[in-house]
Write a structure and sequence with these properties.
Glyco_hydro_42, nine-stranded parallel sheet, alpha/beta, single chain, TIM Barrel, beta-galactosidase activity, GH, 34 strands, Rossmann fold, metal-binding, zinc
């Protein structure tokens, strides 16, 4: 979705303030060049303190003050945190999960299929929409907040799941066969006998239930969107703040939501991205999660939450907040909004700090936000609505993510799928090869020169045949261990592995294990040559591309494929660790394991992309490498933008190789061949 400006702001809740300072906050926001706030999505109990009694005091105060200070507003539907009176009246609103009935206290504890919850949620949405729909500076609506199914698995949800299975499998014998339920006498001979799925030891059935739970989220958000659409103006958008797989930060594709399906009811995708800061800041999370967001609607997206100060260990170094903000925009976002404006004084997120600290005074983070906001007031019209035309894409698959959760890797555990995906996405990021994300539901990949398919554990034959056809017709495929292993129900294919793809890949395997003290070494000289061209070392005599296998080791036999890497171990040295193959008009690269040496992975990728004639990035020996990150795109005026982002505390110089142009921030003319100096955590944007 195109926007008329870049949006810069924060989530704001006057309900949380220890005293009334709305006017002062809006003054400080306007001074900082902030032009948007997000309100209301977590304040149902304030908006409706008693059933049917509505209080718009806080909403009106925020709306009125925002109007006076030229600040737009995004209104969230307040449905993800239920009020006490509602739970008292309908105790079964609280979800029954794997751990039993939820208790009141934390947010997102309800059953999103409960009819009493839905009835009251609809009523509060309609009352809120009726109140704000004609406010001119309300620019859009956020549906709920980081919505999931919250593990709901009570009797009604279980009955809905059985109805879902009946529709998919009219023949109960076919259902039993597909899911392998004869094992351990788990067979269901009558739908009326269907057991509580929470107790299943059958990963196929468990995975199907997780898929069903994801569909509940899609239906719930679509239901909300339909209500909001009845009231919204044509100039207002509908979005949702999707979050991502989470460890200590946002790390990858979300397992609990089918974001591609759920986003269909929205006009613009939104995202919450939380990433490492200070010494651990790389920008990789901004890129991978932003690329997922951009792929949901194949369009620009909104950052609805990201960190300002964040949790105590996350306090950014001076310069990093600005670098991060430009990185979001360089990736295709049309906004940067912080969680949240000020640090709150009670409850669980007291130490999840906003732009302002608990004393509300100007601080280093605020002063840096002033710099960002005022730069964007000057040059934002050049930066908004950035379009990208990437030549390489990474495929995402919810079913395989679930499969890796059910059958985890030894070291990566439940995050294994995203670990494999990030292995590739981060390598491309470091090499300054920009990439798209695509859904595994797609079948036409012809717009991409190269397609990376990490860990496609669960795949219907239609997808495997589409990949085979893509390569045969001239595409270049990179894929990994545990791909083409099981069908869409996690039933392992009973023939040569990888199923269907073994011909395209030119290899097969029939054994695999976890590596213990197994080294990986290059077989082909072009991998070493790529490494020596791209990675400088003070002592070349000590330069080595040997690495250790760290996850899931397949013992690959090459049929028509050529080994690229091999195992350096007496028990496994006759097997390939990675191999490439020519097939039809295209080619493939297959990794049978993961390993720890980033330079080895990057060298193998560079060597393969060189051979394919890849045109989607600079593969030359002097190409910039992380921590200098370069991002490109086309702006609203049809001009190319080139972002130079220094993810290092040390100053760097970079040679501009594009057309002549202007560095927008400094208003300096740039000629091809000029050196651009970037300070630590520095940014430059050249328009050509």
């Amino acid at each position: 979705m195109k926007t008329e400006k870049l949006y810069f702001g924060a989530a704001y809740y006057s309900e949380y303030l220890p005293y009334d300072r709305v006017e002062k906050d809006m003054e400080m926001m306007e001074k900082a060049g902030m032009n948007v706030i997000r309100i209301a999505e977590s304040t149902w109990s304030t908006l409706e303190p008693q059933e049917g009694v509505y209080d718009f005091t806080h909403i009106d105060r925020m709306l009125n003050a925002a109007a006076c200070h030229h600040i737009s507003v995004i209104v969230g539907t307040p449905t993800y945190a239920v009020p006490t009176w509602l739970v008292k009246k309908y105790p079964d609103i609280l979800a029954i999960t794997q751990n039993g009935r939820e208790r009141y206290g934390h947010r997102q504890n309800m059953d999103i299929t409960n009819p009493d919850y839905l009835s009251h949620a609809e009523r509060v949405i309609r009352v809120l929409m009726e109140h704000v729909k004609d406010v001119p500076h309300v620019i859009g609506y956020q549906l709920d907040n980081e919505t999931k199914s919250y593990g709901t698995a009570g009797p009604r949800v279980q009955a809905m799941f059985v109805d879902y299975l009946k529709e998919k499998f009219p023949d109960i014998d076919e259902f039993n066969h597909e899911f392998g339920l004869d094992y351990w006498s788990n067979r269901v001979n009558d739908w009326e006998d269907f057991p509580d799925v929470r107790g299943t030891i059958n990963q196929s059935l468990a995975a199907e239930f997780y898929k069903f739970q994801r569909s509940l989220v899609t239906k719930f958000l679509s239901w909300q969107a339909d209500i909001v659409r009845e009231y919204k103006r044509d100039d207002q958008f509908i979005t949702q703040n999707f979050d991502f797989d989470w460890t200590t930060h946002s790390v990858g594709y979300q397992s609990q939501v089918d974001q591609y399906d759920a986003a269909r009811c929205m006009t613009v995708a939104g995202a919450d991205i939380y990433h490492p800061s200070n010494e651990e800041l790389t920008g990789a999370e901004i890129t991978v999660c932003g690329n997922i967001s951009r792929s949901l609607k194949k369009d620009n997206y909104l950052i609805l939450e990201t960190e300002a100060q964040g949790l105590t260990p996350w306090l950014p170094y001076p310069g990093q907040l600005r670098l991060q903000a430009y990185s979001h925009i360089a990736n295709g976002s049309n906004s940067v909004m912080y969680w949240h404006w000020h640090s709150i004084h009670n409850a669980i997120e007291s130490y999840w700090k906003g732009v302002l600290s608990h004393d509300f005074s100007e601080n280093e983070t605020y002063r840096e936000a002033v710099v960002i906001g005022n730069e964007w007031k000057k040059i934002g019209s050049h930066l908004k609505n950035l379009k990208k035309e990437n030549k390489i894409a990474i495929m995402l698959d919810n079913a395989s993510l679930t499969g890796f959760t059910q059958f985890p890797l030894e070291n990566a555990g439940a995050n294994g799928y995203n670990t494999v995906m990030r292995w590739f996405s981060d390598a491309l990021y470091r090499l300054n090869i920009e990439y798209d994300m695509i859904s595994s539901k797609e079948r036409d990949f012809s717009s991409y020169e190269c397609l990376i398919v990490p860990a496609l554990y669960s795949a219907p034959e239609s997808l495997l045949l589409a990949l085979d056809s893509y390569v045969r017709n001239g595409g270049h495929l990179i894929t990994t261990f545990r791909s083409g292993f099981s069908d869409e129900y996690l039933k392992i294919y009973p023939d040569m592995q990888p199923h269907i793809l073994h011909e395209c890949l030119g290899l097969h395997y029939d054994q695999f294990t976890h590596p213990h003290h197994v080294d990986i070494v290059p077989v082909q000289s072009d991998v070493m040559a790529a490494a020596q061209k791209h990675f400088s070392h003070p002592d070349d005599s000590a330069f080595s591309l040997t690495s250790s296998a760290c996850e899931w080791m397949e013992l690959i036999t090459c049929d028509t494929a050529v080994p690229v890497l091999k195992y350096s171990h007496p028990a496994y040295e006759r097997y390939a660790a990675a191999a490439k193959n020519q097939y039809g008009n295209g080619s493939t690269l297959y990794f049978g394991t993961m390993f720890e040496n980033d330079e080895l992975l990057e060298s193998v990728l560079l060597s393969f992309l060189h051979e394919t004639g890849f045109s989607g990035g600079d593969l030359s020996s002097d190409a910039p490498h992380y921590p200098l990150i370069i991002k490109r795109g086309i702006n609203d005026s049809g001009k190319e933008l080139c972002y130079y982002l220094n993810y290092s505390k040390d100053p760097v110089s970079v040679t501009h190789h594009g057309k002549n142009g202007v560095e927008l921030i400094s208003e300096t003319a740039i000629v091809c061949g000029n050196k651009i100096d970037l300070g630590g955590w520095g940014v430059a944007v050249v328009e050509m």
